[in-house]
Structure formats: structure tokens, C-alpha cells
Design goal:
By secondary structure, the protein is of the alpha/beta class. The chain has 3 domains: about 170 residues, Rossmann fold; about 250 residues, N-(1-d-carboxylethyl)-l-norvaline Dehydrogenase, domain 2, CATH 1.10.1040.10; about 30 residues, 6-Phosphogluconate Dehydrogenase, domain 3 (Single alpha-helices involved in coiled-coils or other helix-helix interfaces, Up-down Bundle), CATH 1.20.5.320. Helices cover about 55% and strands about 10% of the residues. The strands form 2 sheets. Strands 3-2-1-4-5-6-7 form a 7-stranded mixed sheet, with helices on both faces. Strands 8-9 form a two-stranded antiparallel ribbon. Helix 4 links the parallel strand 4 and strand 5. Helix 9 packs antiparallel against helix 10, helix 11 packs across helix 12 and helix 15 packs antiparallel against helix 16. The longest helix has about 35 residues. The radius of gyration is 25 Å and the shape is globular. The protein starts with 7 loop residues before the first strand and ends in a 17-residue tail after the last helix. It binds 6-phosphogluconic acid.
Length: about 475
């Protein structure tokens, strides 16, 4: 077995792992991948192009042996026990200064625990979020590293080489202490859930409310995907409505069950929002909507009990389409507002020192939520790095105000015509609550004090008060 000679190692040669290594090889790095499956390792080794240095191994010892020091080893294995198992097997084989990178969607609290566990071992550990799916890994993902700053200096150049680029800038950057990378990736996914939910609500309104066909939907979403609304999720949505089903000859979308799956990162974002606490209602309802979609049998049972069905919306087609477009824009912006406010709060709460401007810059390319608006957000954070919430920016307030009449109208039409649009409604409610200096929660305080002597604060003087009601 040759010793050294390879720059980067990967544990897990699934599509993501091997694609990321192939991407590194394209940038001149010598890369080695470990997989227990001999076939996979062999296939990987054979997949390089001439002049590239690729190695596939079947033991972690072989992986460790072929890497130059300090060794840089990433694992792309399912979150949870598999990550700990790899760490436990790798650690005794490594030397001081070697770096283990968890590139999967690990829960940030697990990452904090792993960082603490490895702190005194001499081995560096980094939690790094990677977005962009299989294609992103191969051609340029968005990479969200956090944790050990010294380790980042060593792996940073490799990550920068393989990441997506926007205006020549790499979509990667050091995003803060401890589990910052995985925290930012978690919220990225929460926002992803939210935007996907919003697009599906607009699809419902246009398919049933307007009676648009699949080719028309493709055309509309494709047209929306430009200028200030340009985004990867709109781009793929337009593609989806074109796809034919080879088995039936119909459009594939019409044969896909509406029971939505989830691997958990959206739920984690909601849970973290509740814990902080920092409201992220659009992420909450997106998780809820997927859960509700899973109650397929019950929904089928309920449908005939309530004769009311979603119906055609009596409004001129062009007019309604443009109102839905502005509503989607408004609610998508609010999804980012909530997610970014949450990162700001968590950064403070968990001492992660997350640079918000860099977060939105990293999200501009390669990731699932890449969109033109991120450039706008980067400008806002550049001017006001400590901004608690994007809604507090004067120019951004103007953009929201401009779209407001549309979402008010669409939400009322949706409710009046029996369409469930929890995402659009949540965005409008969040906006309406956040922009008000006075909320009816003084009554909640009075009730709490009435039945439980929980006390309240007053608007006219300092102190804590209780009343014998
Ligand atoms: C990404 C994606 C990726 C994954 C989601 C899917 O950024 O590349 O977010 O991480 O596709 O986790 O999540 P669900 O299966 O929960 O929808």
C-alpha cells in the first residue's frame, strides 16, 4: 500500500460522495474514497479521466494511509449513528492536526456534542453543510463550513475550488463557530421547505382556480423565473410540468402521489425556532402541510362529508396570474426573512458569530434556495451587518409594501374558494404582526394573570404587576 500522495479522502461513495471527489479531481486534487462495497470503490477508481489521480479503498486504514498530512477526510453518511460510528473508527487511526469533516445533514446539537468530544484529541472536527444535490456536488455546490477556524484554513482552498461561483466568488465561506455550518444548512433546508410549499400552493390555485394545463403551468413558472424572482426552485418547477410519464404517456406530475416525504431537517428548523424562541411560521406550516398530506386515507374519507370543493376563481385569468405571482414573491421573501432572523438570533444565543452577509452570499449559487433576491439581501447586510430582521430595512420595506395588495387579495380569494394556502397566509400574518407596534397579546397577559397569577408588565410604568381579578 503506497503511503501518502492523496489530498482528500471521502468516507461514503454514494452519488454525493463520489461526485464531490470527481469535482475535486477536476480541480487537480488527488482524491481517495472509502466504501465497504468493493464494487463501488472499484467503479469510483475507474471513473476518473486521464491525468486524474483517484483511488478507491475498502478499509479506513487504507484511506488514512494514502492521505498526505494533515489528513483531510470528509464523511457523507446518513446523519445520526453512522456519523459517530465513522468518527469512532477513524479517530484511533489519525494523528494530531488531521481533520474530520462531517458533510452530511447532521443535527447541529450532535455536531456541538462531537466538537466537544473531540476537542482535546488533537483531531479537528468540522460540521459542513453542503447543498445542491447530486448535480451540485459534481458541478459546484454551495458549501457552509463552520467550527474549527484553523482547520478551515487548511480545507478552505479545496472547498473554494469545488464550490459554485457567482461573479467569480466561491459559494463557500467560514460561517462561524461550533455548529454554525450545520445550523445554517438546517435553516437553508427550512427555507427550502417553505418555498416549495408556497410554489405548490400557487400551482393549486392556477391549476384548479384558473384551470391551467400542465404546459401552461410550465410556461407560467418559466416566465416567472426571471429578474427579481429568478430562482432554482422556479426553474425546476417549470421543467417538472413538461415531463411526460413513459408508462402512460400522460404528464408525470399527475401520476405522483401527493403524500409528501421528509427527512427531518425542516422539522428540526421549526423545533429550533420554538426553542430560541424565534418565529418561523412559514417553515412550521410547510412541515405541517407535508404531515397533513400524509393523512391521505383520512382526507379521502373526509372529502365526501364536506361537499365544498376547490372551485374556479372568478377573476380574469391574466389578472389572477399576476396577483399570484406577486403573492409568491412576497411570501418567498418573507420565508427568507424568517430564516435569516432565526440564524441571527441563534448566532447570538449559541455564540456562533455567524456573518449574515456571507451566509446569503454562499446561498447565491449552487444550493437549492439560490435566487436573485440573495444578492439584494447581501447588499442589505453589507450596510447593516447587525440587522435583526430584513423587514427593518427601509428599502426592503418598500418592496414588501409593493406586493402587499396582491397577497391580501389572493389569500382572501383562496379562503373564499376553499383552497388551503397555509404558506401564503402565514407569510401575510407574520408580516402583519411584525409590522405592528401593538398586538392583542395584552389580553393573553391579563388572562394568564387572572387564572394563574402569572403577572404582567404595564405600558405606563416599570415593574411586574399582579391583580386580584
Ligand atoms: C440540499 C437539499 C438536501 C436534501 C434535503 C431533502 O440542500 O441539497 O436540501 O439536503 O435534498 O434534505 O429534504 P427532505 O427529504 O426532508 O425534503
Amino acid at each position: 500500500m503506497e503511503k501518502g500522495g492523496y489530498d482528500f479522502g471521502m468516507v461514503g461513495l454514494g452519488v454525493m460522495g463520489s461526485n464531490l471527489l470527481l469535482n475535486m479531481a477536476d480541480h487537480g486534487y488527488a482524491v481517495a474514497g472509502f466504501d465497504l462495497n468493493e464494487e463501488k470503490a472499484k467503479k469510483f477508481e475507474a471513473s476518473g479521466q486521464q491525468g486524474q489521480k483517484l483511488k478507491g479503498v475498502n478499509t479506513l486504514q487504507d484511506l488514512v494511509d494514502c492521505l498526505d498530512k494533515p489528513r483531510k477526510i470528509m464523511m457523507l453518511v446518513p446523519a445520526g449513528k453512522a456519523v459517530d460510528s465513522v468518527i469512532n473508527q477513524l479517530k484511533p487511526l489519525l494523528d494530531n492536526g488531521d481533520i474530520i469533516i462531517d458533510g452530511g445533514n447532521s443535527h447541529y446539537t450532535d455536531t456541538i456534542e462531537r466538537i466537544n468530544r473531540l476537542k482535546d484529541s488533537g483531531v479537528h472536527f468540522m460540521g459542513v453543510g453542503i447543498s445542491g444535490g447530486e448535480e451540485g456536488a459534481r458541478r459546484g455546490p454551495s458549501i457552509m463550513p463552520g467550527g474549527d477556524k484553523e482547520a478551515y484554513k487548511v480545507v478552505g482552498p479545496i472547498l473554494e475550488a469545488v464550490s459554485a461561483k457567482v461573479h467569480g466568488e466561491p459559494c463557500v465561506g467560514y460561517l462561524g463557530n461550533d455548529a454554525a455550518g450545520h445550523y445554517v444548512k438546517m435553516v437553508h433546508n427550512g427555507i427550502e421547505y417553505s418555498i416549495m410549499q408556497l410554489i405548490s400552493e400557487c400551482y393549486d390555485l392556477m391549476k384548479h382556480g384558473l384551470g391551467l394545463s400542465n404546459p401552461q403551468l410550465s410556461e407560467v413558472f418559466g416566465r416567472w423565473n426571471s429578474g427579481e424572482m429568478e430562482s432554482f426552485l422556479l426553474e425546476i418547477t417549470a421543467e417538472i410540468f413538461k415531463k411526460k410519464d413513459p408508462q402512460t404517456g400522460g404528464f408525470l406530475i399527475d401520476y405522483i402521489s401527493d403524500r409528501a416525504g421528509a427527512k427531518g431537517t425542516g422539522k428540526w428548523t421549526s423545533q429550533s425556532g420554538l426553542d430560541l424562541p424565534m418565529p418561523v411560521p412559514n417553515i412550521d406550516v410547510a412541515v405541517m402541510a407535508r404531515n397533513l398530506s400524509g393523512l391521505l386515507e383520512e382526507r379521502k374519507e373526509a372529502a365526501p362529508l364536506y361537499g365544498t370543493r376547490e372551485q374556479r376563481i372568478a377573476l380574469e385569468e391574466e389578472n389572477l396570474e399576476s396577483l399570484i405571482k406577486d403573492s409568491l414573491h412576497f411570501a418567498t421573501l418573507i420565508s427568507y426573512v424568517q430564516g435569516l432572523a432565526m440564524i441571527t438570533a441563534a448566532s447570538h444565543e449559541l455564540n456562533m458569530e455567524i456573518p449574515l452577509e456571507d451566509v446569503v452570499k454562499v446561498w447565491r449559487g449552487g444550493c437549492i434556495i439560490r435566487a436573485a433576491s440573495l444578492e439584494v439581501f447581501a447588499g442589505i447586510y453589507h450596510k447593516q451587518p447587525g440587522l435583526k430582521n430584513l423587514m427593518l430595512d427601509k428599502d426592503f420595506a418598500g418592496v414588501l409594501e409593493e406586493k402587499l395588495p396582491a397577497i391580501k387579495k389572493v389569500v382572501s380569494l383562496a379562503a373564499g374558494n376553499n383552497y388551503p394556502t397555509p404558506g401564503l397566509m402565514a407569510a401575510l400574518c407574520y408580516f402583519n404582526a411584525y409590522r405592528r407596534s401593538y398586538l392583542p397579546t395584552n389580553l393573553v397577559q391579563a388572562q394568564r394573570d387572572f387564572f394563574g397569577a402569572h403577572t404582567y408588565e404595564r405600558v405606563d410604568r416599570d415593574g411586574i404587576f399582579h391583580t386580584e381579578w
